[in-house]
Design brief:
about 90 residues; mainly alpha; 2 domains; 4 helices; flat
């Protein structure tokens, strides 16, 4: 089999997989929420803070990586500031 046929076949397979992904994603987004599950569509801060399961993947308010990084950075800044103040005294 010539090399150019292999390249065409490889690109064709990749394009087919990409098309399948795009089509299924669009169909997924257009699928309506089942009856009785409307309240579960979007988590709310009130619901998530009332729950003790902070490891839950639905709990966006406890598990947001950006928020965790901000909290860790702020904690490190506070510790650094306290260490600097102790060093001055």
């Amino acid at each position: 089999m010539p090399d150019y046929v292999r390249w065409i076949l490889a690109v064709g397979i990749l394009l087919l997989l990409l098309a399948i992904f795009v089509i299924t994603f669009v169909l997924y987004k257009k699928t309506p929420v089942p009856k009785g599950c409307e309240e579960f569509e979007k988590p709310s801060e009130r619901k998530c803070h009332g729950c003790n399961q902070t490891e839950c993947h639905f709990n966006l308010y406890y598990n947001d990586p950006v928020e965790k990084a901000k909290e860790e950075f702020q904690q490190e800044e506070k510790e650094q500031l306290q260490n600097d103040q102790k060093g001055e005294n």
